[in-house]
Write a structure and sequence with these properties.
It holds the Pfam family Aldedh. InterPro entries: Ald_DH/histidinol_DH (IPR016161), Ald_DH_C (IPR016163), Ald_DH_CS_GLU (IPR029510), Ald_DH_N (IPR016162), Aldehyde_DH_dom (IPR015590). Belongs to the aldehyde dehydrogenase family. It contains 15 helices and 22 strands. The strands form six sheets. The protein has a seven-stranded mixed beta sheet, sandwiched between helices. The chain folds into two domains: about 270 residues, Aldehyde Dehydrogenase, Chain A, domain 1; about 180 residues, 3-Layer(aba) Sandwich (Aldehyde Dehydrogenase, Chain A, domain 2), CATH 3.40.309. The protein starts with 15 loop residues before the first strand and ends with a strand. By secondary structure, the protein is an alpha/beta fold. Bound molecules: adenosine-5'-diphosphate.
């Protein structure tokens, strides 16, 4: 939990950063940024266009091809150290902007502000210590022995497209390892949360020596702006976090020029609660996790698989937690759940709950707007039981404070239900017998699994999805290598 030095709604910088210049779009068009906790306009952001994106990509291309950025490791280390210090200085400002544009409760902003700032330092050190030239030994060939060396080289121009749920964290996670590895970057933040991106641009321009063109931020309200980045032939790689539908569009757009693509997409993760689990530990936490980010988390275990032998007991524990959950003003440190990001998102969440009930699910609690919160896009924590594993609510990502409970009879059946999904991002297992829980975890077709609340997620370990949840990894040694190509050089063995 964080100590907050300053509070109150704060607008971010309106401008984007292209080729070293903080600027508005030509003509000066802007779009409104809405505070989801009040439904009021909190300020504006410049409405960048496809032309602005083309200029930013051109600047990044030039900076990669014509400057020493990609070859000067010590200079990159210097710049990212400056960036880390600058983020530290701007920490409270970034936190207030985050709460203003996302509605994230102040009490849980640590993982969205402190963690990514620490990660800048991590990537600077990791990138400095990385072995860019590795001797791969002598190999027999028909023409005699050849020594091979592997030279890790930056991919080139990286386009980073980010979503609105954890904007500052993902802006950092998608760009800092790319920069440290020697790439140049164009960041396109989500239109609902432009300021976490524009402030990053302002800080780079005003408080670091990162050269013009190496890092660009293009803010715009049209999806075409992100689409232009993902299709531009001058871009070598796209790194993206967001919905699976947009991920498919980005893959297709990059196909023409065979872009390297790193995708972290949707999830419908399952939490298998085994019959020997400690329900009093596992289930209040399961309910809490569904609420703290208003359910707007891709790794949220939103399907709870309960053994039929302890079904009613499990539902009662989660219902009690959700009925008493502190929802409201994100600036009040007593609240753990804020609003949904927008009216559209809340309508989508409530629509999926209505459909679930029509499909035969039982509404245990929630399903509407909290009575004491008529203003702001708030949603009641919602528990649905008796969910059909094939129904829409069990198959589609909700991105709201909604849990779908599914009963099962045997471990095998639970594994089959968990794997009955187009997604494979995360999973969770709770159980008293750790070996049994581990066996179940290895059978889940997902990129990551948490056992008994011990999180899989962190900067030191690879994170990525299987099936339609993504391609490639963030974090860990794997997450850095994503931004490098491995060039093998064969040479005489002397
Ligand atoms: P949501 O639907 O919840 O807004 P998305 O996955 O569509 O989430 O959006 C995530 C990011 O992808 C945003 O920055 C958005 O502007 C961008 N985006 C949307 N459509 C496209 C597209 N066709 N190509 C590239 N980026 C896109």
């Amino acid at each position: 939990m964080t100590s907050v030095e300053e509070t109150g709604v704060l607008a971010g910088d309106e401008r984007m950063l292209i080729d070293g210049e903080l600027q508005h779009t030509a003509g000066g068009a802007t779009f409104d940024v809405i505070n989801p906790a009040t439904e009021q306009v909190a300020g504006q952001a410049t409405d960048g266009t496809v032309d602005d994106m083309a200029r930013a990509v051109g600047a990044a291309r030039r900076a990669f091809d014509e400057t020493d950025w990609s070859r000067d490791l010590e200079f990159r280390y210097h710049c990212l150290t400056q960036l880390h210090e600058a983020f530290e200085r701007n920490k409270e400002r970034l936190r207030r902007i985050l709460i203003t544009e996302v509605g994230c409760p102040v009490k849980v902003t640590g993982s969205q502000i402190e963690s990514p700032i620490d990660e800048v330092r991590h990537w600077a050190e990791h990138g400095r210590a990385f072995e860019y030239l590795v001797d791969n030994g002598v190999h027999d060939t028909p023409l005699g022995p050849a020594r091979r060396k592997i030279h890790y080289e930056p991919v080139g121009v990286v386009g980073a497209i980010t979503p609105w749920n954890v904007p500052f964290y993902l802006n950092v996670a998608e760009t800092v390892p790319a920069l440290m590895a020697g790439n140049t970057v164009v960041l396109k933040p989500a239109q609902l949360t432009p300021w976490s991106g524009s402030e990053y641009g302002r800080i780079v321009a005003e408080e670091t020596d990162i050269p013009a063109g190496v890092f660009n931020v293009v803010v715009g309200n049209a999806n075409e702006v992100g689409a232009a980045l993902s299709a531009d032939p001058r871009v070598d790689m796209i790194t993206f976090t967001g919905s699976t539908a947009t991920g498919r569009a980005i893959l297709a757009a990059g196909a023409a020029t065979v872009k390297k693509t790193l995708l972290e997409l949707g999830g419908k993760s399952a939490h298998i609660v085994l019959d020997d689990a400690d329900f009093s530990m596992a289930l209040p936490m399961a309910a809490l996790m569904a609420c703290v980010m208003s359910g707007q988390s891709c790794i949220l275990p939103s399907r709870i698989l309960l053994p039929r032998s302890r079904y009613d007991e499990g539902i009662a524990i989660m219902a009690a937690m959700m009925e008493n959950f502190a929802v409201g003003d994100p600036w009040d440190p007593a609240n753990m759940q804020g609003p949904q990001i927008s009216q559209t998102q809340r309508e989508k969440v409530l629509g999926l709950v209505t459909n679930a009930v029509a499909d035969g699910a039982r509404l245990v609690t929630g399903g509407g707007v909290p009575e004491h919160l008529p203003v702001g896009y708030y949603t009641q924590p919602t528990l649905l039981a008796d969910v059909d594993p094939d129904s829409q609510i069990a198959q589609e990502e909700v991105f709201g404070p909604v849990l779908a409970v599914i009963p099962y009879d045997t471990d095998e059946q639970a594994i089959a239900i968990a794997n009955n999904s187009i997604y494979g991002l995360s999973g969770e297992v709770s159980g008293g017998d750790l070996e049994r829980a581990f066996r179940v975890a290895t059978r889940m077709r997902t990129g990551n699994v948490t056992i008994n609340g011990k999180s899989h997620f962190g900067i030191g370990s690879p994170f990525g999805g299987t099936k339609q949840s993504g391609l490639g990894y963030r974090n860990g040694a794997e997450g850095f290598k994503e931004y490098l190509d491995a060039k093998t050089i064969g040479l005489p063995d002397q």
